[in-house]
């Protein structure tokens, strides 16, 4: 019989030590969760806006703007 | 200039708004709390005169409007060999970071915030918000905090539709190998209740409202932009557990998303709630029962709105950007 997902993570805890929702924790394939499969692709989690990929729509438009490049942009 | 306080990485509510700020050619600066903590980042902060500069920009002087998505740093956990010392160190680093981020936010308190951090934090407590919603005349599901099997059994005897359970705050994804683990809203059955531990950690139990459909409404400066989600069946079975969570229906081909107009009477009550919460924006979740009654579930001040915006053609990113520009011009120099 397949083990309860709870036991995969929390087998060392008594069931009463956690709130009830954790007893029914679900086990899903990462690839089936759009949010996570996206997270697994580094390019998808990088902020879209950094200095080297801005859409160029005019020479003066960005003159007053400053962009910070996050970790993932490096 | 619009100051955007957001995550380091991709954030759905940030990127689309920046698209529109670029389109309108309006100056902006994006910053994160993590950047504030990095030793090599370009922040200059002097407390005695309340100056905060970032990337050479004097934030107090240049900023008119602030778009707040998140301004909370990830606190490192340094494994120094003794878990007790590691935990204490992390707790103290968290204190340092919190005081610093709070100071930066406080120094910009006279700007226009969408929304303010204080209001966002207050509304993030689902329990307090439910009580407040009830005082505004909104229907809310019966909700209890239980600590024993006996209490849950008693609830089951009192309500035919049954009960659901979900975290009071939030449960993220736990990763192990190729799997992700998380909690969804679960509908309890009598067998599960009988198998509950006799006593347990305080847990939220909420009356199950079988939905006719669900509504996500984005509130912005007094206006509501809503989307209804219609599904073939509101439950999803996984093993012995029945989940009642709209998130699990996203990929179901029978799920339909349509633009929706809330009744004016409901909008008025929701507006009253947002005023009491001091929130000028937020994503509101509602269930419309099979008898047509609107039940308020929660409001997320920094909710994810890009999906409803696209599905129901609500153009929310554009509306947010236009609000920020208008307020920036009004509050800025």
Mean pLDDT of chain A: 66
Main beta sheet of chain A: none
* Number of E-type strands of chain B: 20
**Total separate domains of chain B:** 3
Binned, the helix content of chain A reads 10-25%
**Total DSSP helices of chain A:** 3
**Strand segment tally of chain A:** 1
Structural class assignment of chain B: alpha+beta
CATH names the topology of the largest domain in chain B as Rossmann fold
Structural class of chain A: mainly alpha
Largest interface: A-B, 48 and 61 residues
List the helices and strands and how they pair.
The complex is a heterodimer of chains A (74) and B (333).
Chain A: H1 5-10, E1 26-29, H2 34-39, H3 42-45
Chain B: E1 2-5, H1 12-24, E2 28-31, H2 33-37, E3 43-46, E4 51-54, E5 57-58, H3 59-62, E6 65-68, H4 83-107, E7 112-114, H5 117-123, H6 126-135, E8 143-148, H7 149-158, E9 163-166, E10 174-176, E11 179-182, E12 186-187, H8 190-194, E13 199-207, E14 211-220, E15 223-230, E16 236-238, E17 241-243, E18 256-260, H9 264-277, E19 281-289, E20 294-300, H10 306-311, H11 316-331
Parallel strand pairs in B: 1-2, 1-6, 6-7
Antiparallel strand pairs in B: 3-4, 4-5, 8-13, 9-12, 9-13, 10-11, 12-17, 14-15, 14-19, 15-18, 16-17, 19-20
